[in-house]
Amino acid sequence: MSIPTASRWLAAAALTLAVLVPGRAAHAQWTYTFNGFFNNENQTVSFTVQRPSAIVGPVTAVPTPCTITPTEYNAETYSCASTSFGENGFGTGLSLVDFGFSTIFENGGGGGGSWYFFEPGIFATVGVHNTVSSNDARLRVDNPLFIAEDAECEGLAANECEDIRRQYNYYGSAGVATLTIAGPTGTPVPEPSSAILVGAGLAVMAGVARRRLPAR
After folding, report:
1. pTM higher than the cut 0.85
2. 61-75, 143-157, 168-182: least confidently modelled range
3. Which of 77, 97, 122, 209 has the most CB atoms around it within 10 Å of its CB?
């Protein structure tokens, strides 16, 4: 028995469309792995943040897993808190990671953050990135409130004049750190629409094959 033309076209169209429809990655996520020092390099912090897409603007995330070693420093016990990622951190033009932490001490608790600066635009760049030096000139930002004619520095060297130093804001880095960024990985998984098309094509072809079998 010949295969009906309509059946052949239906099967071919379904299978062709199933191949052409793009699938999605099984693990379509960006992974940010941070390792660094803070508190004068007396403690280390390590955490991971996973997101469905690359960071392209200010983002606040709760890192997990996250560790601080040692957890105790200067009679305070540290634990991880939310961390923020930002571009143009504090007006420096640099990428900023503000690692948040909370503390518990004898008479109460508190918290704070440690600032880490990286080259601009790294959050969408796969690879291993290092912090910029704490002496980097880009961490010196003009203070818009400084009025030069009001500076009182007569007889003082530039590095001794508090008024001259106030013409800039200085943002020191909390410590050296690395940020390892991995993009989406995984074997493509067919979209539901693709699976339906594949099923339709196979069903039509199976039906045609049954019709070709000789009658008993």
Report:
1. no
2. 143-157
3. 97
